[in-house]
Structures are given as C-alpha cells and as structure tokens.
Amino acid sequence: MSKLWQKTTNVDKLVENFTVGRDRELDRQMAAFDVLGSLAHTKMLQSIGLMDAADLMLVQHELKTIYTEIENSNFEIEADVEDVHSQVEMLLTRRIGEAGKKIHSGRSRNDQVLVDLKLFFRHQLQQVVSETDTLFRQLVQLSEQHKDVLLPGYTHLQVAMPSSFGLWFGAYAEGLVDDLEMVLAAWKITNKNPLGSAAGYGSSFPLNRTMTTNLLGFESLNHNVVYAQMGRGKTERVIAQALSSIAATLAKMAMDQCLYLSQNFAFVSYPENLTTGSSIMPHKKNPDVWEIMRGKCNRLQALPNDVALMTTNLPSGYHRELQLLKELLFPAFTDLIDCLQMATFMLQNISVNKNILDDPKYTYLFSVEEVNKSVLNGTPFRDAYKQIGLDIEAGNFNPDKTVNHTHEGSIGNLQNQQITEAMDKVISSFDFKKVEDAISWLVK
Ligand code: ARG
After folding, report:
1. CB of 109 closer than 6 A to ligand 1?
2. Would you kindly state one Gene Ontology biological process term found in this protein's UniProt entry (predicted)?
C-alpha cells in the first residue's frame, strides 16, 4: 500500500496513472516548499498541544534534512508514490517512525498543495521581478547611451516622424514598470496564507492560523476557509495576467527587433555568433532568438485564457482538475524567465546604426518639424501645414534635419530618471526581505 488514503482496495493502474498525471515530475519543483509548509504546520501543532516537544524535535530535524536533500537535488518522488505531499510524509515516517505519522493532523492535501503553490509562486515571482529589473536597467542604459541617435518613427508602418534609440529603448523600459505593477498585484494576492483551511472547510482542532502565517512570512491570511480553497485557480489567474503583461512587452520588442534587423530596415545588428544560419542560403544571419522569444511570449499571452477556461464554472470546494493548473503555470514561469534573460543577453550585444536618417527616403520625417518651425515664426498651423504640403508636392522640401524636442518624455527629454524612480518604487513595494527572513528562520 503506497497511498496516504489507501485502506484495503488497490486502485486500478490505469486510473492511477491517469489521475496522477504529471504530478510526480511537477511536484518536485514544489518539494522544498512542501517541507517549509510542514515545518510551520508542525510548530503550530506543538503550540496547540497536538504534538509533543520530543516529536516536534524529531520531525523538525528530519524535515530540515529532507530540505537539504532537495536543495542538493537528492530527492525524488518514487514511482508508486502519488505526489510530493505523500513522498515527504512517507520519508519522515520511514526514517523517524511514529512521529512522522502525526504531522498531518488538522491538514488536508488540499490546503497543503495550496500553501505549497503560494510559496512556490512567491519564489518564482521574485525571480521574475529580479530578471525584469535586470532587463530594465539594460534598456535604460542603452536609452541613455544612444539618446542622440535618431530613428524613423512609423505610424501605419509608414514613415512618420523622427524618433530615437533613446525613445525606443526607454519605451520598453517604462513598459516594464507597468508590467511590474501587475506583478505586484499578483504578489499581494499570492502572499496570503491558505494553510489551516484543510479540505476547504477548516478543522475542529483549534488551529492557530495566524502563527503559520507569520512563520511562513505571509502578509496576512486568506481568512475564510472556503475562500482560501477558492484561491486555487484565482491566484493562478492573476499571476497569469501579470506574466502575460510582461510577455506582451517582450513579444512587441522581439517583433521590433526582427523588423529592425531586416535588411530593408537595418537599424540594428548583432555579432554573428548571436544569429543563426540557413542550411541552404549561405549568406543568412537570422534573428532566431527574437523569433523564438516572440513565439513563446505570444503563447504566454494565452495563459490567462487557459486558466480561465479550466476553472470557469467550477463550483466552490476542491476539484481534482485544479491539479492541472500546475501544467500551465510551471512551464510558463520557466519560459518567461528564460525570455527575460535572453532579452538582456541580446541587448548587451546590440549595435545601432547611427546614420539611418541619411537615407533620403526618411526626408519626410521632418515635415512636422518644418510646419512647427513656421508656426513658431507666426504662421497659423493650418496655413503652415498647407505650405509645407505644397513644397513637398512640388519637390521643394529640403528640411534642416535637426530635432529640438524638449517636453517631458520626448527625444530631448527622455525622463529616464523619473522612469527609474518609478521602477525603484514598485520594486521596493515587494516585501522580499520579510519572506526571506521568515524562510531562513524556519530552516535554521
Ligand atoms: N495533486 C493534488 C493537486 O494538485 C493534490 C491534492 C489532492 N487532493 C485530493 N483531494 N485528491 O490538487
């Protein structure tokens, strides 16, 4: 007998395989967090008299050993064990006997997996914030470095007005600030403790949920036990929104990169070893990195919809298919973090073309500049507009190609400092320190 819940009957092998699904593989990623949850839960059990001090000592010591084994990749969910929760409890009981059998009082795998997921998501969100921050700094640095290099701005993909590399890089940097506002909202919703909701309806034991909330470094708790269970799916949904927000920014940037790398634009270039070749065309240097990123990030934008479809119309209470949400969220984090790292790496190696606007096809970029000069000299806008239009039609348009934009957020006044302050403010709102302190105290 290998199931926590098994009494006498053996479950059909087909049913077991179908229901366990990818849990053995995916749960490994939550293993350290499962142990943290148990470290907190058992301390709480002892505090309310459901575990004696000697048992607690044994349990805590062995849980910490398992934690270290997990850290050292020396942990596996055995073939006939259902999930990480069963594996950890089984290891404990195998190694320390009776005391191991006591850790599950006042708990169900339903709130156990809920808390594991919240701890895991918190950890992943912290990585996302950190990688986004790194990419942000890279973009701001490039924006400052190339602030005087002009770039054609397009509307309708038609040559429109002067832009600059300062604006282009800085725009994506500012986009990431707003994306992290979304991540902050997801963080806040994630950072509430569901432990103690048990199967979804609480327990007749006098659990101290405030205690586990503090031990695990949560900001507060999901108070209502029924709502705590509803957090499965809801948490994933808001996280999916946040990840998809970053993904949308990256996908747009990746598309710009592919376009700007095309010979018809040739605005940017990369060292040859960062591009990929063709098996038939010997001259090719393809932007495959940005294409894969565009694809992954476009796919990530389907995530909120995937989560919604899987959970829409589920009544309150636990349902087994909630397990499948792991298959959506876990790889999404991996993909997004990969993309953030690759974007930073590529941008560390980007070169920009400094003479783009010398090409005569960009002459008309300056039509509005000329109209505005005329307005500054006293001509009403509509008359100035008409005169420049007539000059263009007659082939008499010879603009002075200097730009003088001074207002907030324009070519000559990028406000990268304000954008950086906004970023610093969002990042300082994440209480990573509190979380890290709580975890290191638990495993100490
Ligand atoms: N693997 C399960 C999940 O992710 C763990 C909880 C199982 N609970 C249950 N009532 N069968 O949801």
Report:
1. yes
2. L-arginine biosynthetic process via ornithine
The pTM for the full model equals: 0.94
- Write the pLDDT tens digit of every residue in 304-348: 999 999 999 999 999 999 999 999 999 999 999 999 999 999 999
- Compute the distance between CA of residue 436 and CA of residue 442 in angstroms, rounded to an integer: 10
Which residue, among 167, 346, 176, 178, has the nearest Cα to 274 in the 3D structure?
Answer: 346
Same fold: 13-102 with 109-205+222-358+414-443: no
* Domain 13-102 = CATH 1.10.275.10: yes
Report H helices in 72-108. Answer: 84-96
Helices (H) and strands (E) in the chain, counts: 16, 6
* From the candidate CATH numbers 3.40.50.12780, 3.55.40.20, 1.10.10.10, 1.20.200.10, the one assigned to the domain spanning 109-205+222-358+414-443: 1.20.200.10
pLDDT digits (tens, 9 = 90+) for 173-230: 999 999 999 999 999 999 999 999 999 999 999 999 999 999 999 999 999 999 999 9
Ligand 1: centre distance to CA 24 (Å): 12
Task: State whether the beta carbon of 229 lies less than 6 angstroms from ligand 1.
Answer: no
Domain ranges of the chain: 13-102, 109-205+222-358+414-443
